[in-house]
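New to this. Help decode both lines:
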Amino acid sequence: MSAGTRAHVEELLDALRACAAAAEVAGPLHLPGRVVEHLRHLDPEHLTTSHLAVLLETLGVDPWGGPSPLLDALVDAVPPPLRAAIAGRLADLRTTPVRA
């Protein structure tokens, strides 16, 4: 945002309203049943960054990307202990240097 954005506030609000309306029509994202079943068998204490990276890659989620409805659905589908483990491993993935 900058001072130049002020001239486009109405356009931005219209775009935001359109996106919110489309999201309401689409409803919440649900993971495929096979993925949910797989998630139920994961042990939070043994979840590694490698496991999470493979899971995210399989779902087409970029761990270094911005917000992802699919990642939100994944986190919503798991019990709190696994949710905490996923959040921790995701933080690890996002902060570990990547060699070129």
The chain is about 60% helix and 0% strand. Helices lie at 9-26, 33-40, 49-59, 69-76, 80-95.
